[in-house]
Amino acid sequence: MSAWLPISEIARLVQTGELKAVDLVEQALATISEKQDYNAIIVTLEARARERAMAIDAQPTGRLAGVPFIAKDNFLVFGADTTAASNILRGFEAPYQATAIERLEAEGAICVAKANLDAFAHGSSTENSDFMTTKNPYDTSRVPGGSSGGSAAAVMLDMAPFALGTDTGGSIRLPASYCGAVGYKPTYGLVSRSGVVAMASSTDVIGPITKTVADAALVLDVMSGRDDLDGTTIDADPAGYAELEKSLAGKKVGVIKEYMAEGVAPEVKAQIEAAIATIKAAGAAVVEVSLPSLPSALAVYYIICPAEVSSNLSRYDGQRFGHSYADATSLEESYKKSRSTGFGKEAKRRIMIGTYVLSSGYYDAYYKKAQTVRTKLINEFNEALQSVDFLLGPTAPDIAFKIGENIDDPLKMYLTDILTVAANLVGVPSISIPAGTAHDMPVGLQIMAAQRHDRQLLGFAKEVEGLLV
Description:
By secondary structure, the protein is of the alpha/beta class. Helix content is about 40%, strand content about 15%. It has an eleven-stranded mixed β-sheet with strand order 1-3-2-4-6-5-10-11-9-7-8, sandwiched between helices. Strand 10 and strand 11 (about 440-450) form a beta hairpin.
């Protein structure tokens, strides 16, 4: 039972005066304080949130009037530092706000806190945060997933009705699966990345983590559309995303053969097969679809992603903002010491891998070849999505693992993204919705659609959600 009403209902009651924004903010802040042992939150924005709540109560307008939310701490937000959970950005105060935050606030939403993440969003468990490890709401001995682990945990702990995450290779959908939330990764470019700390710019996507598909659709509707500050943005669907049509009966669904193969835990596979049977019984046509290049997707991602990471992280050099090594006697020493003391192990690992694959003599062998396979993947997805309306499979190959279980094995940690990275590489929208449990832990069903078919995907996911509840 959720402590929060549906987002649209909260806003309606604030608009009519039956609920007060100040009370909603206090409810969110009290829950955050009560459940601080889960380490979901890096910092609260108490003063600014209370000030905004009073202003909204004085003039309660907007589709998200008075609705508290939590932003992953790689979003630039006024009222607290933006650290991306990295020591190198400790004390960095945002000079402007992310476009997504601005659009949410313009409709009356109130940011109450910043959520924990893997530093710079590098990870699948939040164990790479330089500050703390977030605990799974279902089992505190397990990880919540990553990199948006704090956001997913916060939503499931009722700290706010929704949270924002970023998804570069599964960082919204994986924690949603592990924590039993709804996690939505829109089509690449549908939500502006302006004001969000960059990881891998060709796959970074911003989206909501909620408890229901309807809530995710409303938040997406507010955030989506072109932005002059981000040249990769695309137009939103003219019909919007908030009002979803029924769209299951008569639809053709492709079950991805490679996602139901060896490597997926039997108990996870059983839950997904049960969900597929339910979808079929409700009137959808279900077929098996093969995407032959999918087994290469993870290797492609872990070449392209670190290459872009190494480029994007070069700006954190201790000279202009963030952590700077105080006792350096030369500029070169300042660069070296600022970066070596400011970056964590995983950031350093990705910088080194990325620099290597982009270096002279290796660029063609690694980066160029990875981009060629990426194009092949795009073509295979396009072809498959011409014959079916949606593709589906599990979000993760297993339930959430124990804290510390994979921390010393980077390869095993990277393998947790094996079912999510392809959607980022090809730019298609993808959603994870709860599909039952295995060993009392949540299992996520992943559904994908063609680029710009976000409205259709959300409508279908809402129908499936109703069947699986």
